[in-house]
Amino acid sequence: MTDHYRAPGWFTRNIANRLVAAFTRAGVSLLGSRVLEVRGRTSGEPRRTPVNLLVLDGRQYLVSARGHGQWVRNVRAAGGELALLLGRNRTSFHADEVAPEDSVAVLRAYLKRWKSEVGVFFDGVGPESSDEEIRRIAHRHPVFALTPQ
Fold it and tell me: Which of 21, 68, 105, 122 shows the smallest number of beta carbons within 10 Å?
């Protein structure tokens, strides 16, 4: 199912995301926050959104808690080319999508770190859930492995 997406509510869109983005632009990372910049698939213009950067076993990952939303679609359309911003620092990456069946460990680590923030989007699945329970919902939460460019 590639159309699963939970749009952010008014508070998240207008207050929370803007606050996180402002702190991140100022160089303050809140629990791994970055601003993702990716070329828009329709406009070709840069699109920016706050994301949580997960580091697991020395690798960096982006997880879409809300599902197959705009930033996910833009990353796919841009061939995986994106940048993460923190203050004035800009790091270019190539993103490779991780197959849902291979994303269990990443999703578990993501939920362990940010469950209080994003747990509602995972249908009752948490870091303590079985591999099978996480695998059952993995197709709804795209995971990208990042390689610095």
Answer: 105
